[in-house]
């Protein structure tokens, strides 16, 4: 395909428009809160939780949510995770169906019938055992989301009078164990599941007690202590992990047990009602302000690009970062001090991607006072301690690598490499420098072992709902190549880079854009990510590919004035989301590299 010449005036206009659109996305604190897509799943569980607590008091919230859900049902009777942006799935469809059945069956007969037909197609029928088997099939051995789904179905009466016996019990009594024991057993991941473990485990026990008398007595004994534990780990604003689904599952479970006035329920309801949008919907999380600010700062202040933030603005953002760093052991997860979470709100917990992102952003902002350097050293130490034995970096905690919380991930590992590389020469502590060098060597070994045969890497928290395996090798490969581009002075890095570049070149679509793989619908996000990654490797083949992709990007963003979103983000329990700022940020990164 012949490549048209890029008009430099058009390119400059696109850059100017895109940059200004991103700058306009700031709030009064010079921070980027973004806007997550509204979620049918979050909306369904929120309205049902409020219904369980007090149907009359929260009637307006419930009715608005149901109306929004009815309007967002897809033609085949299903619902997807992100408002009409992805195809329907069994989990979300079941939860929406349960909400309508449990709250107002008469007024939404057509909606319920269409959903029932779709569920039958997925599960093979509407019997409790069929629904349970279908849900367990989706999530395999991971019960952390399968059981909440089935619990809401049971509470809504979807599974009849004997539906509880098909729901597997959760050992909520584990929550009474000392946190230090989790660390000793390398089960730090348990800390992140405590709200669901306690609430879902107790509501199952409440309605369906085990036949074994010893198990009954044991769980009866631990009801009180584990509820107290739940109360102590609840954030001050009531939202567990800032997540409407998790908070709603906890609230509906306790309310169904007759604990409608329990402090956890009262605070949870405040969070849920405060999180509703004016159109009657809820997002899956409040916002990703730290993550988006990390990305925005790095995009706006790329080396060699026009400076778009005043020194006073940089200092304001820098101070904000210092205020968001966790300086003590986290009360919920027990994580060590030094990390950053995905948002500045109370429900956030520290994670590797946002800690690496904050370190990169702080380096880019250029402020080097004593407070900044202290925060940087603490962040680097936190990230170093998180590195798994395989050399990769997990999201939240070291562990056995069996769940998303503690499993090493290529794109997060690449992000950590970038942070360590950028700060290496500015950290005067020789011991810490040696630790960073060793960590980078181990991380490169992990990336080499994890590179797929086609040259790609698979990310953990990003995917594509239209691809067969729901993965997104374009995102993962682009992120790793950006890190390797900094280190491309060794045979190992060059070999990995060459294979990664070949993959991105091979999967460019015929329309010159990129999707998650060859033939997948091209998106602004994935096209921009691929261009940005390839720009670090100048060859004739790369230049031709980049020029074609850039023309696609200019056309499909209408010269930087139009940024439709794609649901490439994966949240906890593999829930899809789209974020308003992703196409803007990624486009700016790509266009600035070319300009």
How would you describe this protein?
The chain has 3 domains: 1-30 and 452-595, Glycosyltransferase; 40-275, Glycosyltransferase (Alpha/alpha barrel), CATH 1.50.10.20; 287-450, Glycosyltransferase (Alpha/alpha barrel), CATH 1.50.10.20. It has 24 helices and 2 strands. The chain has helices spanning 8-23, 40-54, 59-72, 90-103, 109-123, 128-139, 146-155, 179-184, 189-192, 194-207, 213-233, 244-256, 263-275, 289-300, 311-324, 352-365, 370-386, 410-424, 430-450, 473-486, 491-506, 524-534, 540-556, 582-594, and strands at residues 569-570, 576-577. A two-stranded antiparallel sheet has the order 1-2. β1 (569-570) and β2 form a beta hairpin. The chain is globular and about 70 Å long. The mean pLDDT is 92.
Write a brief caption for the model.
This protein has 595 residues and is an all-alpha fold.
Describe the secondary-structure layout.
Layout: H1 8-23, H2 40-54, H3 59-72, H4 90-103, H5 109-123, H6 128-139, H7 146-155, H8 179-184, H9 189-192, H10 194-207, H11 213-233, H12 244-256, H13 263-275, H14 289-300, H15 311-324, H16 352-365, H17 370-386, H18 410-424, H19 430-450, H20 473-486, H21 491-506, H22 524-534, H23 540-556, E1 569-570, E2 576-577, H24 582-594
Antiparallel strand pairs: 1-2
Helix pairs in contact: 1-24, 2-3, 2-4, 2-12, 2-13, 4-5, 4-7, 7-12, 10-11, 10-12, 12-13, 14-16, 14-24, 16-17, 16-18, 17-19, 18-19, 18-20, 20-21, 20-22, 22-23, 22-24
């Amino acid at each position: 395909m012949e490549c048209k010449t890029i008009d430099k005036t058009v390119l400059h206009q696109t850059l100017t428009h895109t940059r200004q659109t991103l700058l306009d996305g700031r709030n009064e604190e010079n921070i980027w809160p973004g806007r997550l897509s509204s979620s049918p799943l979050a909306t369904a569980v929120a309205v049902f939780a409020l219904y369980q607590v007090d149907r009359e008091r929260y009637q307006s919230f419930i009715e608005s949510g149901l109306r929004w859900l009815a309007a967002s049902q897809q033609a085949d009777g299903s619902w997807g995770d992100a408002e009409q942006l992805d195809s329907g799935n069994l989990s979300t469809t079941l939860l929406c169906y349960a909400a309508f059945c449990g709250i107002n069956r008469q007024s939404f007969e057509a909606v319920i019938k269409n959903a029932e037909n779709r569920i039958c197609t997925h599960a093979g029928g509407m019997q409790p055992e069929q629904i349970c088997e279908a849900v367990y099939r989706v999530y395999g051995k991971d019960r952390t989301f399968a059981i909440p789904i089935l619990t809401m179905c049971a509470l809504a009466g979807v599974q009849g009078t004997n539906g509880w016996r098909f729901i597997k019990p959760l050992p909520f009594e584990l929550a009474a164990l000392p946190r230090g024991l989790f660390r000793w057993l390398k089960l730090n991941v348990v800390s992140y599941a405590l709200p669901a473990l306690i609430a879902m485990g107790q509501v199952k026990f409440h309605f369906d007690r085990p036949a074994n008398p010893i198990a009954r007595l044991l769980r009866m004994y631990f009801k009180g202590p584990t509820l107290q534990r739940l109360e102590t780990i609840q954030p001050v604003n009531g939202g567990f992990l800032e997540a409407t689904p998790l908070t709603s599952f906890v609230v509906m479970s306790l309310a169904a047990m007759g604990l409608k006035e329990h402090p956890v329920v009262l605070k949870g309801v405040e969070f849920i009602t405060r999180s509703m949008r004016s159109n009657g919907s809820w997002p899956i999380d409040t916002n990703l302000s730290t993550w988006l600010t990390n990305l925005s700062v790095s995009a706006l202040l790329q080396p060699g690009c026009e400076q778009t933030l005043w020194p006073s603005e940089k200092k304001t953002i820098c101070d904000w970062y210092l205020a968001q760093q966790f300086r003590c052991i986290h009360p919920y997860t027990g994580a060590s001090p030094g990390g950053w979470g995905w948002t500045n709100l109370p429900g956030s917990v520290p994670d590797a991607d946002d800690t690496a992102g904050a370190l990169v952003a702080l380096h880019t902002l250029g402020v080097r006072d004593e407070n900044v350097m202290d925060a940087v050293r603490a962040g680097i130490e936190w990230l170093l301690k998180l590195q798994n034995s395989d050399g990769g970096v997990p999201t939240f905690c070291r562990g056995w690598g069996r769940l998303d919380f503690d499993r090493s991930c290529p794109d997060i590992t690449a992000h950590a490499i970038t942070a360590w590389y950028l700060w290496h020469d500015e950290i005067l502590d020789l011991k810490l420098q040696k630790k960073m060098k060793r960590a980078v060597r181990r991380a490169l070994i992990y990336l080499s072992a994890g590179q797929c045969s086609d040259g790609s890497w698979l990310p953990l928290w990003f995917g594509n709902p239209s691809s067969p395996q729901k993965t997104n090798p374009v995102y993962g490969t682009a992120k790793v190549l950006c890190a390797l581009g900094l280190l491309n002075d060794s045979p190992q890095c060059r070999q990995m880079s060459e294979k990664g570049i070949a993959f991105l070149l091979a999967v460019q679509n015929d329309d010159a854009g990129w999707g998650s793989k060859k033939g997948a619908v091209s998106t602004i996000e994935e096209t921009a990510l691929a261009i940005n990654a390839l720009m670090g490797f100048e060859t004739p083949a790369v230049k031709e590919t980049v020029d074609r992709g850039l023309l696609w990007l200019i056309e499909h963003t209408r010269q930087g004035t139009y940024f439709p979103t794609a649901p490439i983000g994966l949240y906890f329990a593999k829930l899809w989301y789209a974020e308003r700022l992703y196409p803007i940020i990624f486009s700016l990164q790509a266009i600035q590299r070319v300009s």
